[in-house]
Design goal:
The chain has four helices and three strands; from the N terminus they run αββαβαα. The protein is elongated and about 65 Å long. It holds the Pfam family Peptidase_M28.
Length: 112
Amino acid sequence: LQRLRAAASQGMNARLVACMREVEGQAVNVSAEVPGSDASLSPVVVMTPRSGWWSCAVERASGIAAFLEILRAVSHSKTERTVLFFANTGHELGHAGMQALCEQRPDVFGKA
């Protein structure tokens, strides 16, 4: 690290090479529904990404924490509108989870 800092302070150029391997994995979306008292009203949709480039809490922790707190608060209240919660995977890969969700639940996104 010291050598890199010294080189940077002298205005030297560097090339970074990252070696990786591609591996297949499985990913899932997570959903929950809090029914409202008036089914004729359009639902409220709360969404957050749930995946990241690697397994670590730092990247998604704040969004997931807020998502869960909103879900907790709504589940303890009486709402007229149904509230749908979706935590989608693949936001870093062209929103793959969101695309799958839209294909699987056109009923939701046509009236939300």
